[in-house]
Amino acid sequence: MKLWMYVVRRLLILIPTLLGLTFLMFILTHAGGTHILIAEYLNPRLPETAKNAATQAIITRFHLGDPIYVQYFYWLWPVLQGDLGFTITPIPLPVTTAIALFMPNTLMLTIVASALTWILAVPIGVYSAVRRDSVLDQGVRVSSFTLYSMPIFLIGFILLVGLGIYIQPAIGNVNPALLPQLRGTSWFDSTISVSYPTHILFFDAALHGYWNVAWDALVHALLPGLSLTLALLAGIIRILRASMLEVLDQDYIRLARAKGVPERFVNNLHARKNALLPTVTTFGYLVAGLLGGAVVIEYLFNYKGIGWWTTQAFYAQDVGAIMGSTFVFGIILVFTTLLLDVLYALLDPRIRY
Known about the structure:
Layout: H1 3-30, H2 34-41, H3 48-61, H4 68-80, E1 86-87, E2 93-94, H5 95-130, H6 135-149, H7 152-163, E3 188-189, E4 194-195, H8 201-207, H9 211-248, H10 251-258, H11 263-300, H12 306-315, H13 319-347
Antiparallel strand pairs: 1-2, 3-4
Helix pairs in contact: 1-13, 2-13, 5-6, 5-9, 5-11, 5-13, 6-9, 7-9, 7-11, 8-9, 9-11, 11-12, 11-13, 12-13
């Protein structure tokens, strides 16, 4: 099967998967009763006198008096149009607007952590497998096992205590002492501490010439980014090492060595490529799972990404924000699975059949 045909088939499978995700979200929204759905779509900016009329409008809009399957389709249509209701965290906003404001910071941490993990894990994992049972290999195994067994919040806490003394204050997106020079600027909203146009303070401050703010924002992203990197790194090293050891025991590797192929070519050209196949799949799922870890890390470091926003929504019992962030996490996981399937098919054509 050609690659484009495989991609089309996976895209067709994606449709019922996304519908299943929306159905699950619908069930969760209705699990606590219709008042949960009403609270999710009730605009908190409305005055008290208008809320009764708005409540009746929501009941009519979603046909809450009709059978549950009818309600599902009336609920699905605005969701497909990007209407996920309203949030009160940190101020009254449409959920999609809040996601657009806070998601970029989380994406930046995830991309940086993923890149650092891949750059570090591949050479360490390969070298550890090639030098099996050496002192370095033993050190790598002990270190990776220790990190792998530690919960991500403990990794973040150790970094906060151990390295936080070099960054004062160590939490937040930027030093509060720099905020007065940002107030009143056209590109920074001090009410919700969000910058424009990218919503990533490092880039926005650099674009507008505030280099001291840009540098401070970058420094404040180091500890949460390093926490996510260490959480990913341990698992990838262990998987890559095990996969590399399995490949090095294959007959074609022995044949290449018997023919006199230099060891560096055997390891880097023959063994590593095949060892990376299962590692790529696992890596993708771990990156998607970083969003769950980012919730804890962003809360620990008070780093204002979508994880921090979701945590604040839980404390505020903000139904719209909780459902919206859950829906976004689900969509990211679904599309990550699709991307991994296509990438795996590109690396190993045998799975297309």
